[in-house]
Every structure is written in structure tokens, then in C-alpha cells.
């Protein structure tokens, strides 16, 4: 596909430094090969050492208390600048309010699309399903990451043109590859002989932090294993039972706990030092941490949540049911340890499927090619 110099896509990401922001950056980088791209992000955006890009970045959105004003500003901004496609990345706050905004864009002939990272909120309200149905039906086109999400939308009677492409690898974070030994020396007292298990990302019950902490206790007598917890803990957990458990883990000799935001340039160090990434999620649709693990060639132990099963079945790790036994988790870790090379090789093979070049091309064809009238679904990438 040739670059269309008269076309413009505005990628709308309400945050300035989240996983969705990193996804938006990766996508904008690929789409900029085909079309003029502007990334509209939160004002807290900073490049943090990102590689140079061939697209424009517009810090636009204020903190959430400015939500209604920002929606009005966005409506005016789009009416004035007239993008060919406005591609939204998830929702900000209110699916109902945003559905009204998207329908307004339709009335003034601005084509809209949305990448659905989570079909429903992580903590849905009784009305969330209805408001999200209204939101999804307002868009001209939708993009999902997995067959499970595709099926969920069809079950919700959302019959918009759909593209299914996998969530791409987060190779964006690989800026200065470091050796495992170097990272362990800089971040931990662990040696290369230790087998290191990593829990990365938001530290909360939904991500299965309690399961990871229980695994640490269960394997504490086995000197081969070491544990790393790295990520931000929600302020609501301060002075809670979880905070006490984290401090207990921090005080032990087999676990490192860095419960704070991990700077962009340091993310790669945690994956470089790890042998396995543990994803004992209890709820969710997709996982950026899984795509980080694959980018660094690290096998995973994950639960059957969202699109994790569709990735893990490729041999990159072991899949457990959401309600698993602690002994099952320990056995899965040991299985990967004993057959590590085969799982690591599968991770390398899987990288091709999640390559951003293919994903960007899929987006470009879907968003820039004409849409058939009365189309129900467009394609699966």
C-alpha cells in the first residue's frame, strides 16, 4: 500500500503514559508509513526516551476532572481539522457520554473507529454492558485483538465492520538491550544460577498478586527460585493487608519488590533479568505484559482470561484455569524450568505473528480502503 499524502488519521488516546499510550505509539509508528498520523494524547505525555517517530504528537487531554470540557474541545478540534479517520483507543470515563460524541461525529461526516482493548470495564457497573453496546454501535468500524472479543461483540449484537488483529509486541521498550547478568547485578542480589519469576505491571488483586505472593511462600524453601515484583500499587491498598504482604516479601531474601511506576527506559531491565513472567490474572480482555514477555522472549504462566489463551496455546508457556490450585502453579513453573529451551524457542517463533509491520498493514487496509455498504464484518487479520 502506498502512502496517501492527502489522508490523515488521528489516533485518540486519553492517557499520556499508560499501556494504551504505548500501544498507540507503536500503532502510530506503523501507520505513519501509509498515512499522515497525529497522536492525540494526555498532557502528561513525555517521550521518556522513545525512538524518533514520523508522526505528530499533540498533548491535548487534561486530568479527568476536565472530562466534559475536553470532550467539547475534542469535538471542536475535529470539526475544524477534519481527519479522514478518528481512531479511538478505548474509553476515558463514560461510555454513554462518549457514544453521544461519536454519534455527533457521524452527523458531521467524520469517520470513526475504535480499538477495543477491554470489551467491558475491569470493574463493570450494572449498566456497563448497555452503555458499551451503545458506544460500540456508534462507531463506523471496530478493531479487536482476539476471537474471544470478536465473539463477545457479536453476542452483544454489535454488528459493525470488524477487524481482528493481535496485540503487537512491545518491542518499543527494547532501546538498549542488556544482559541478564548485568540487570541482576544492578537491580537484585540474585545470581545467574537463580531461576527468576517476574510479576510485572499494576499490583492488584485483579492481576493475581495474591497468587504470586502465595507462590513465593510455597517455594521459599527451594533456593533455586527468586521472585521480582515490579509495578505501581493503587493508593487504595496503602495500609491494607496487601501492603503488609508486600513488605513481608520485601524483607525476605528471595524477593525484590519495586512497587512504584517503572520508568519507560527501565522496563526492559526487569524482563532481561527474568526467566519466566507470571500472569495469574483473575479478569481482563488482553495483556500488554504478555506482549512485553514475548518481545523479550520470556515464557509465561498465565490464566485463561481474555486473549491470553489464544497466545499461550502457541507453546509460549502454560495456561491455567482462573481458579487454579497453588500446586498447579508451582508445577507449571517447574515444567517450564525443566524444559526451558523449548518454551523459549516457541516465544521466538511466535514473534512473527505479533509483528507490528503486519498489524499496521492490517489497520491501514481496514481504515483507508473503502467500506462496503451494509458490511457486517470486514476481515480477520
How would you characterize this protein structure?
With 381 residues, the protein is an alpha/beta fold. The protein folds into two domains: 4-168 and 355-380, Rossmann fold (3-Layer(aba) Sandwich); 171-350, Glycogen Phosphorylase B (Rossmann fold). It is 39% helix and 18% strand. The chain has helices spanning 19-31, 67-81, 95-107, 128-138, 147-155, 180-187, 209-218, 241-251, 264-273, 288-295, 308-312, 326-338, 340-350, 356-368, and strands at residues 4-12, 35-42, 56-61, 85-89, 111-115, 141-144, 162-164, 195-200, 225-230, 255-258, 276-279, 300-303, 317-320, 379-380. It has an eight-stranded parallel beta sheet with strand order 3-2-1-4-5-6-7-14, sandwiched between helices. Strands 10-9-8-11-12-13 form a six-stranded parallel beta sheet, sandwiched between helices. α8 links the parallel β9 and β10 (255-258). α1 (19-31) packs across α14, α2 (67-81) runs parallel beside α3 (95-107) and α3 (95-107) packs parallel to α4 (128-138). The model is unreliable at 371-378 (pLDDT under 50).
Task: Offer a concise description of the structure.
The protein contains 14 helices and 14 strands. By secondary structure, the protein is of the alpha/beta class. It has an eight-stranded parallel beta sheet, with helices on both faces. It has a six-stranded parallel beta sheet with strand order 10-9-8-11-12-13, with helices on both faces.
Amino acid at each position: 500500500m502506498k502512502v496517501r499524502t492527502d489522508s490523515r488519521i488521528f489516533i485518540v488516546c486519553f492517557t499520556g503514559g499508560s499501556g494504551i499510550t504505548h500501544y498507540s505509539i507503536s500503532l502510530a509508528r506503523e501507520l505513519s508509513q501509509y498515512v499522515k498520523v497525529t497522536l492525540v494524547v494526555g498532557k502528561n505525555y513525555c517521550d521518556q526516551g522513545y525512538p524518533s517517530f514520523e508522526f505528530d504528537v499533540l498533548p491535548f487531554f487534561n486530568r479527568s476532572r476536565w472530562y466534559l470540557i475536553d470532550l467539547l474541545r475534542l469535538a471542536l478540534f475535529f470539526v475544524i481539522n477534519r481527519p479522514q479517520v478518528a481512531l479511538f483507543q478505548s474509553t476515558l470515563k463514560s461510555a454513554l457520554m462518549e457514544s453521544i460524541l461519536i454519534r455527533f461525529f457521524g452527523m458531521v461526516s467524520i469517520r470513526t473507529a475504535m480499538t477495543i482493548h477491554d470489551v467491558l470495564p475491569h470493574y463493570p457497573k450494572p449498566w456497563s454492558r448497555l452503555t458499551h453496546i451503545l458506544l460500540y454501535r456508534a462507531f463506523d468500524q471496530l478493531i479487536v485483538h482476539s476471537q474471544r472479543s470478536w465473539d463477545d461483540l457479536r453476542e452483544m449484537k454489535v454488528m459493525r465492520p470488524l477487524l481482528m488483529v493481535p496485540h503487537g509486541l512491545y518491542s518499543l521498550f527494547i532501546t538498549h538491550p542488556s544482559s541478564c547478568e548485568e540487570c541482576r547485578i544492578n537491580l537484585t542480589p540474585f545470581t545467574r544460577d537463580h531461576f527468576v519469576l517476574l510479576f510485572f505491571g499494576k499490583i492488584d488483586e485483579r492481576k493475581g498478586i495474591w497468587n504470586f505472593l502465595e507462590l513465593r511462600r510455597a517455594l521459599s524453601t527451594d533456593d533455586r527460585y527468586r521472585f521480582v515484583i515490579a509495578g505501581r500499587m493503587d493508593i487504595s491498598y496503602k495500609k491494607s493487608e496487601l501492603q503488609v504482604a508486600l513488605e513481608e516479601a520485601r524483607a525476605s531474601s528471595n524477593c525484590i519488590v519495586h512497587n512504584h511506576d517503572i520508568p519507560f527506559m527501565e522496563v526492559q531491565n526487569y524482563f532481561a533479568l527474568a526467566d519466566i513472567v507470571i500472569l495469574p490474572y483473575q479478569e481482563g480482555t488482553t495483556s500488554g505484559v504478555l506482549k512485553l514477555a514475548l518481545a523479550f522472549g520470556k515464557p509465561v504462566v498465565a490464566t485463561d482470561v481474555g486473549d491470553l489463551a489464544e497466545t499461550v496455546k502457541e507453546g509460549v508457556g502454560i495456561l491455567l484455569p482462573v481458579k487454579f490450585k497453588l500446586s498447579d502453579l508451582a508445577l507449571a513453573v517447574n515444567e517450564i524450568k525443566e524444559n526451558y529451551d523449548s518454551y523459549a524457542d516457541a516465544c521466538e517463533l511466535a514473534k512473527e505473528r505479533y509483528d507490528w509491520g503486519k498489524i499496521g498493514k492490517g489497520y491501514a487496509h481496514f481504515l483507508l480502503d473503502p467500506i462496503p455498504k451494509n458490511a457486517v464484518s470486514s476481515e480477520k487479520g
